[in-house]
Amino acid sequence: AQSVAQPEDQVNVAEGNPLTVKCTYSVSGNPYLFWYVQYPNRGLQFLLKYITGDNLVKGSYGFEAEFNKSQTSFHLKKPSALVSDSALYFCAVRDIRDSGTYKYIFGTGTRLKVLA
Amino acid sequence: DTGVSQNPRHKITKRGQNVTFRCDPISEHNRLYWYRQTLGQGPEFLTYFQNEAQLEKSRLLSDRFSAERPKGSFSTLEIQRTEQGDSAMYLCASSFRGQLNTEAFFGQGTRLTVV
Predict the structure, then answer these.
(1) Cα angle, residue A37 at apex, residues B78 and B103 outer, rounded to 5°
(2) In this complex, is the C-beta atom of B38 within 8 Å of any C-beta atom belonging to chain A?
(3) Pairing, β B10-13 against β B31-37
(4) Three-state secondary-structure class, residue A84
(5) Beta strands in B17-87 (DSSP E)
(6) Measured between alpha carbons, how far is A55 from A74 in angstroms, rounded to an integer?
(7) Nearest-CA distance from B112 to chain A in Å?
(8) B28 to chain A, closest Cα gap in Å
(9) Which long-range contacts (CB under 8 A, 24 or more apart) does A27-31 make?
(10) pLDDT per residue over B59-115, tens digit each?
(11) B41·A108 Cβ contact <8 A
(12) Which member of A4, A34, A105 has the closest CB to residue B103?
């Protein structure tokens, strides 16, 4: 069964500092991995995805994520945090070997708070 | 607007009433998903369609829930005899069946409050 874990409910970081939001996954085959961001009372906005290739993926708003197969992780990073980055971040996975389903499995989310 | 559209944005209903939500996906997308998100949780998969065919349903989708996508375009999610536990944000998403690696695009959701 596919699953995603986001071990931190909340991450606090000072504006201008680098940020990391952690995600680990479990799938039976090779994963498709995604990061989404959610602002209050809004839907989810796609940030970036890993399918294959370079382990460092660049996405929207200066975010990037590093895929680590041996550690089954896909941590979200940004070199310099902005107050406007404060939001709820979700990691999601889809198992490409499970051709019978196309659903995305989401983690429980990590609230990022960037302090001015 | 070329995004996923959901209506209504908010719905307050009395326990026991029926409610229906609508989702209009991105026009060229043939996959459509419904998710439910409760406070402090990630989105939980409910069901998905490929064109008009409902291909998968979660065990979360009890008999009181029904989803349709009659012409392969917009979709409706109906909840009959609502219960307070149905209070949640209902999210719709769509994706394009062109490649396996495509991401899903989400609407802004319908927030249901059952009183």
Answers:
(1) 70
(2) no
(3) unpaired
(4) helix
(5) 19-24, 31-37, 44-50, 53-57, 65-68, 75-79
(6) 9
(7) 12
(8) 17
(9) A27/A2, A27/A93, A27/A95, A27/A97, A27/A98, A28/A1, A28/A2, A28/A95, A28/A97, A28/A98, A29/A95, A29/A96, A29/A97, A29/A98, A30/A95, A30/A96, A30/A97, A31/A2, A31/A74, A31/A93, A31/A94, A31/A95, A31/A96
(10) 888 899 999 999 889 999 999 999 999 999 999 999 887 665 678 899 999 999 999
(11) yes
(12) A34
Q: How far is B101 from chain A (nearest CA, A)?
A: 6
Nearest to A103 among B33, B106, B107 (CB): B33
Q: pLDDT tens, A39-73? A: 987 789 999 999 888 899 999 999 999 999 999 99
Interface of A with B (CB under 8 A): 4, 32, 34, 36, 41-46, 49, 51-52, 90, 96, 100-109
Are A20 and A76 contacting, i.e. CB atoms less than 8 angstroms apart? yes
Q: How many CB pairs under 8 A join A and B?
A: 61
